[in-house]
Amino acid sequence: MSLLEIKGISKTYPIETTLWGKGKRLEAVKNVSLTLHEGTCLGLVGESGSGKSTLGKMILGLERPDQGEIFFQGKNLFQLAAKEQKELRQNLQVVFQDCYSSVNPRLSIGNIIAEPIKNYEKLTPAEEKKRVGELLEKVGLSPGNMDKYPHQLSGGQLQRVNIARAIALHPKLIVLDEAVSSLDVFVQAQILDLLADLKKEFQLAYLFITHDLQAVHYMADRLAVMYKGQIIEMLDDIKQLNQLEHPISRKLLSSMLPLHPRG
Ligand SMILES: Nc1ncnc2c1ncn2[C@@H]1O[C@H](COP(=O)(O)OP(=O)(O)OP(=O)(O)O)[C@@H](O)[C@H]1O
C-alpha cells in the first residue's frame, strides 16, 4: 500500500473580480494524481506559480481540493472524524522555506520543538527536556541551544530547529516546501545531508518541493514536473534525469549546473 495516494485533485482560486471577468477562477492545480511510497522521496519541480505549494497545502490539509481525493495510509484525508484526523496528522509534517516566519519569535527553541510533543503526549518537564535535547542532537545542534531564541540562531541553525520539530512525533511523511531554498549553497548542502540521513534512519518519506533540479537530483528517488497546475512528466528513477522529454522539463534541465562539474 502506498503511503500517500492522490487521485485527480484540482484546486481553483477566485481571480480578482472585474466587470468583464466576473467570477473567473484560476486553476492552480488541475487533475493531479500521484503516489508516494514509505521511505521514499518524491521531488516536485516546476517554475514559479505552477501549483507546487498548493498541492503541498492540500496534502497537509491546509487547503481543501475542489475535486479529487487524497488518501494517507489508506484513509481519505478529508473524510475523517476530528479525532482520527488528529491521529493521522502527527504522521504528516512540513518544513517551509522561511525558517524565521515558521516559528514564534517569543518562544525559546526548547518550547518551539516541544510544541507538537505537548499536543500529543503527556511528558513530565524533565522527560520533555530530555526529548528536546535528543532532537537537537539528532539535527546536529547542541542541547544548550534550547534556552536560546530564534533571533539568536543563523538561518541554517533555525531550519535545523524546524526539522527537529517536524520529526518530533516520528512522522511518516514530511512536505519540504522549498526548505533549503533560502539558505546559502554551503548550508543547503549540509541540510540536504541531514535530511538524507533522517530519511534513512526513520524510513521517512518526503515530498520535496523545489525549483532546484540539482537539489532534487541529490535528494529524490522519483520526480514529478509540474506546469500550469498539471503534472506534465513523471520520472520513476531520478538517475534518469537526462531522459526527461517534455520541452518544459528539458528547459528546467538546461538551467541546471552540470551534475558533475569536475567529471
Ligand atoms: N490563496 C491563493 N489565492 C489566490 N491565488 C493563489 C493562492 N495561492 C496560490 N495562488 C495562485 O495559484 C497558482 C499556483 O501557486 P503556487 O504557490 O501553488 O505555485 P508554486 O509552484 O508553489 O510557486 P512558487 O514556486 O513561486 O512557490 C499561482 O498562480 C498563485 O498565484
Structure notes:
33% of the residues lie in helices and 24% in strands. The chain is built from 8 helices and 10 strands. It has helices spanning 52-59, 82-89, 109-120, 125-138, 155-167, 185-202, 213-219, 247-254, and strands at residues 4-14, 25-36, 41-45, 67-72, 75-76, 92-95, 173-177, 205-210, 222-227, 230-235. The radius of gyration is 19 Å and the shape is globular. The mean pLDDT is 92. Adenosine-5'-triphosphate binds at residues 13, 26, 28, 46, 48-54, 211. One of its GO terms (cellular component) is plasma membrane.
Shape: globular
Bound molecules: adenosine-5'-triphosphate
Compute the average pLDDT.
92
Low-confidence stretches: none
Classify the beta-strand content into a percent band.
15-25%
What is the CA-CA span between the terminal residues? 39 Å
Count of DSSP strands = 10
Q: How much is the radius of gyration in Å? A: 19 Å
Computed structural class:
alpha/beta
Quaternary status: single chain
Order of helices and strands: EEEHEEHEHHHEHEHEEH
Our count of helices gives 8
Helix content: 25-40%
Across the major sheet, the strand order is: 6-7-8-3-9-10
Major sheet details: 6 strands, mixed
Domain ABC transporter: 4-253
Pfam families: ABC_tran
Protein name: Nickel import ATP-binding protein NikE
InterPro entries: AAA+_ATPase, ABC_transp_ATP-bind, ABC_transporter-like_ATP-bd, ABC_transporter-like_CS, Nickel_NikE, P-loop_NTPase
